[in-house]
Amino acid sequence: MVGLHLLRIFGAFSVVVIHSSVPITFGFGKVSDHFWFMSNALESFFRSGVGIFLLLSGVLLIPKITNRGEFLKKRLMRVVPPFLFWSFAYCYQARAHFPLTPIEIFQKIVHGASTHLWFVQTIILLYIGCTFFGPLISKLEKRHLLFLLIISEMLLLASLYYEEYPWLNEVRTLWAGFVFMLMGFYFSKLKIGLRKRRIYGLMMFFGGTISTFVGTYLYSKIEGSFQDYFYSILSPIILFKTSGTYLFFTSISLKEGLLLNFIRGIAKTTFGVYLIHPLILDAVLFKLGISYQLVNPLVGVTVTSMLCFAISSLFFYFLSKFRYSNYLM
Asked: Which GO cellular component does the record give, naming just one (predicted)?
């Protein structure tokens, strides 16, 4: 289905946009209001990248768990080797600024050699969890699945009241990932016409975007410092918005041809794009003077993100022609 390929592309590009605009958004109160609102608008529009990948995992993987051992082996071999390779790459990059001992390298890999790699660690744990619980979930009727989804989201929201327990942060993130996967599997069971998908999808997407924009501004204004809750996968608004994104893109259809083949080709590189994009942003584009500071945030972030995505995707497209490239992407 072309919609799933487009979702992967949009999800990967969204992550690149977010990381390109982070210096401005997190500079709330320190940068001009005009620039911050531009950045907040971009972030609010594209804040569903990670959620899309999690939701897609639920759509595509939960129904396929028939042989637990085979499923886990296949999923881990797909994710772990690229994760380890790029973790070492980010450790090597860090050594340019300060030396690292073997123990420190190990610690960085365990805790995340780069901030964006938290998602890969989360998805690995979710794959392990799905190996055991996926077959049970896949047998649930739609009404029971919806009930489980509602209860899971309520538990996630209730956990936000217990901020005094630091260990809950990681559990909460993992649980939020489970909720997104559950939502994806629920959508895979729904029969919704293309026209309704398109209408509902757009309404949910733009409703979520506006709510994220307004919520982030008001929350930050009240607290007197930047607050990113409405950006995170813990926010029910992001779940709502990501669901709308899924509905809209799955309403798109294309006939076989060059365009569809082109989309498939780009979609195959999206995991690689996710892994490498900070290196391209920092080690290539920033050194060329291309960043969010180009003209204004709207222009700078857009140009930087498009170039970063294009370079990353092309790199992995050509890399895919070589044997064993799957261990890097």
From this structure: plasma membrane
Q: Which candidate, 176, 268, 283, places its Cα nearest to that of 231?
A: 176
pLDDT at 164: 67
Burial class (CB in 10 A: 0-12, 13-18, 19+), 163: exposed
Distances in Å between the Cα of 114 and the Cα atoms of 93, 259, 274, 275 are 10, 34, 12, 9
Tokens representing 210 are 């506006």
What is the C-alpha separation between 136 and 7, in angstroms, rounded? Answer: 27
What is the spatial distance between Cα 278 and Cα 266, in angstroms, rounded to a whole number? Answer: 18
pTM value is 0.92
Please give the structure tokens belonging to residue 196. 């309704």
> Domain map of the chain by residue range?
2-327
Tell me which amino acid residue 327 is. Answer: Y
pLDDT along the chain (329 residues), means of 10: 92 95 88 89 93 94 84 89 88 71 73 84 92 87 92 92 77 93 92 92 97 96 91 95 96 87 92 94 88 83 94 92 79
Instruction: State CA 139 to chain mean position distance.
Output: 27
Q: Please answer whether residues 278 and 309 qualify as being in contact, where contact means their C-beta atoms are separated by less than 8 angstroms.
A: no
Instruction: State the Cα–Cα distance between residues 62 and 129, nearest whole angstrom.
Output: 11
First CA to last CA distance, the chain: 22
The pLDDT, as a whole number, for residue 93 is 75
Angle between helices 142-159 and 168-189 (to 10 degrees): 160
Token pair, residue 76, equals 């881990």
CB-CB contact of 304 with 282 (8 Å): no
Does residue 138 contact residue 62 with C-beta atoms inside 8 Å?
yes
Cα(78)–Cα(63) distance, integer angstroms: 18
Q: Computed from CA positions of residues 171, 270, 68, 180, in that sequence, does the dihedral angle turn out positive or negative?
A: positive
CA angle 53, 202, 308 (to 5 degrees): 45
Closest CA to 243 of 194, 180, 196, 191: 180
Instruction: Provide the token pair at 202.
Output: 């757009």
Given a contact cutoff of 8 angstroms between Cβ atoms, the answer to whether 108 and 94 are in contact is yes
